[in-house]
Design brief:
Blueprint: H1 22-25, H2 35-53, H3 69-76, H4 80-92, E1 96-100, E2 107-111, E3 118-120, E4 125-127, H5 132-135
Length: 171
């Protein structure tokens, strides 16, 4: 087998899983997550776009996904024990929350946001809460389940190509 480097026009031909850097630097997560758990979290983040396309949004407007342990094992090429440990680590650190569907082994998985410390200029302290002014700002587009603008059933999620970079260097 020989080494074949990439040319400039080939550099963006792949889709990638994004891994939040904070999982390596934030004291809430650094050293507490295995590499498998970090990669699983990035896989779950990636699957959120599929959930939107499938309209997997609960009554509270929260996006969930469905990924069996077996499917996660196959995608990440890890054992049942390792995938179970990775899910447990993510749940313990509040990066996911699982709700069992029926009596089977299938779960709705809610992906949690990374707990970021925010510096509040008004108090001079670090907090995980947004300051009151920002939280209720007119520009803060928080989902309102009673708003007619958030009617997911009327939205068209068939074409998500806009999510990917234009890889045609000849344009």
């Amino acid at each position: 087998m020989e080494f074949i480097p990439y040319c400039a026009e080939e550099a963006f031909q792949f889709c990638f899983y994004q891994i939040p850097k904070e999982l390596f630097t934030n004291k809430n997560y650094k050293g507490k997550l295995s590499s498998d758990a970090i990669i699983l979290y990035s896989l779950l983040l990636d699957r959120l776009s599929i959930s939107i396309k499938n309209k997997w949004i609960d009554d509270e407007g929260l996006i969930y996904l469905i990924l069996t342990r077996k499917e996660a094992q196959e995608k990440l090429n890890i054992s049942d024990k390792t995938v179970t440990k990775a899910f447990r680590q993510l749940e313990e650190l509040k990066l996911i929350s699982e709700k069992r569907i029926g009596k089977g082994k299938t779960y709705k998985i809610y992906v949690g946001k990374i707990n970021r410390k925010i510096y509040d200029l008004s108090t001079g302290n670090f907090t995980t809460e947004l300051p009151e002014k920002v939280r209720h700002s007119k520009n803060n587009n928080i989902y309102n389940k009673n708003s007619k603008n958030n009617d997911f059933d009327k939205r068209d999620y068939k074409d998500l190509s806009f999510l990917y970079a234009n890889n045609d260097w000849n344009k």
